[in-house]
Amino acid sequence: MKLKKQILLTLNSLPIVFSISCSINEKKLSDDKEINKTPSDKTKEENIDSKNTDSNSTPVSNLENTKKEEDNNLNPTIENPKNENENELHDSKEIKEELFNFPTIIEPENLSISHNGNIYNPKKIFDLDKFPKNIVLEDISTNKQIVSSYFNSEMKKVYSTILGANEFFDSIPKWFNFYDQNYQQLAKKDLYKKIPDMHVWFKNNDQYTKLVKKNIIDYVQDNELILDNNILSIEKNISDFILSSFKNRTLSLYALVKNNFSSSILEIKVNIEELLNNKIQEWKNSNLNFLEYKISLSDDNKIKFEFRLKNGLFSFDHNEINSKYVFEKYNTLFDIMYEVEKDNDKHISFSNKKYLKNDLHAKLTTNEILYSSENKELIANNGRRILSEENNKMFNEIRKRVFTIGGGTSTMISKVKPSDENNYLYYFITNRHVSDILESRWNDHRVIKKVIIPDLDDSKIRNYDNDISLDVDKNWLTINFWQAINQNRRDGTLNNSNINLNNADISINIINIKPIIDKAKLENNLKILNYFENWKNLKPLKLSKKIKYLDSGNLVNFYLSSFPTDPYAGFTGKRYREHIVNRIEDIIMNDQPQGFEKYGYFKSFKMQDDLSLNSRYDLISVGSGSLVFDENMDMIGLFMQNIGDNEYGFGLFSSFDYDYFGYENDKNLNSFKKFLQNKVNSEPEKFDLIEF
């Protein structure tokens, strides 16, 4: 039975329990490397980390000091500031950017014929519970043709099933069984794990040739369909494929097209050798009678696919399925087929950027490699907690604006009036259920009336050490300045059948940092002073363009920082944690416990601990409100709830139905932008219109 969702938001001696987000099993709180360590071992090791001067384990506490030397606003009368001799900053250190090389593919030494002579039914060879590796056939042209045809036909069944086409097949390969042990259909995230790298050997005397078919995967930023003047296009960087020693190369594209009650697979196959001889090709008919395509190859080896309709319009919006041809923006699938001599095979990537060794996210080549426990250097689960020694430029920037007050996690997103240099008011974002606690229960003795900034030393965060915290007054805050309540849909209407579909768990608040800066100067608290003084140097955040198009199974580069509670201290203290997301497991309408429906049912994505990899997020109570960033440091959504013991819910900032902020659509009369416009009109001396 699904456990009740709870969140413990504000903690001192006893928790305030707010029944919306986190119910938690203490076992789930260890990180990837610390599952079996005791609380004292963990604290001891992280305390050592925080004091170590090695470049990979420098404490985050001083990260705000990057601009210290050029900041002329610090009070020159401060003497003996705290921690002035502490280790240098994470982001002032050089982060080495050594290129990553995929590991060498190790071929078997001894190969012997598995089936003599001509084969006639490849299913008898390959259609097993697990796709067989290192099958060896005689190098006969008909054998190659039969196996190639089998590989292509079976993988089309796989792709059609994953993409959701309403096509029916006589059989699905056994190695792609899409039911679990209880005969329940597997989620898309589990189906991706079942895609094999297909290969077979052909022997000719002492020579071995390998026929390979495998899908190449990419993050959404490298797998985006672009719509311009009713022409759809997508580009892929196939340099690795072009420059390889592979022979008889084919690149295939698969995409789902929906219209009315029909959903079909667009399938395009490209002969690479022909493309190299003719880099700009003419429009051709596709396998779908209503659509044409065109292919070109640039001098830097980027292949471009263009699509046009014979009649009608393209769209990415599933609400328009009855009138347009709908594609999924980030769900186009690609695979390659080639032949290669023994010991010459290699991993390739279609990424537009070369992977670096210190990249936190997975280095992508194929789904099988991504999820294979045999490839330790490549493996990365759907997401994970980042350890203190893993330095990263993105988190260096996120730490400059993430903090906690009372309960939950908050992030500064913009100055309220950027045109006024003397204005010290800033917007910060968190969950409504977090800001409601601050507004209604500030006087509760269990609410920590301090602002706390990031530090990798758990004991400092847990004990609210003076150098990373400061007492604050509620008068310095404007709580619930704007909330996502009574939101109009993109067509301007309200959902009257269920009013909570018009709400979302998002609030924007204001903090006045002038009294914080003054108090920090008075108390010689240099870390707090530098942290808040540096806000004037930070640009407003932007909303990601990806949000409404995200779908289950998408590969992403997402980041978030949080202040979850410490279960080893009896849930009476906080910690600072950092997390990444590699793959969106599932897009859902979030669930709310009875009594808390007012926080809305809205588009969210869900993640889950991967216990098979011994990987846990360690993202729990008081992590609510943590802002999710994409690879451009644009805003995606907020972490808002734990679901049972090992699942995590993240609310998205927009959908095809709702635009909560109001920067894509002007029909939402209660959007943040509409609300802010009214404030600018009525109080122009206090507010500027911010373009998120």
Automatic annotation (TrEMBL):
Xref: PROSITE patterns: PROKAR_LIPOPROTEIN
Q: Where is this region: Disordered?
A: 29-90
Q: Where is the composition biased (Polar residues)?
A: 53-64
Regions of compositional bias (Basic and acidic residues) in chain numbering: 29-52, 81-90
Q: Which domain of life is it from?
A: Bacteria
Could you identify this protein by its name? Lipoprotein
Q: What species is this protein from?
A: Mycoplasmopsis maculosa
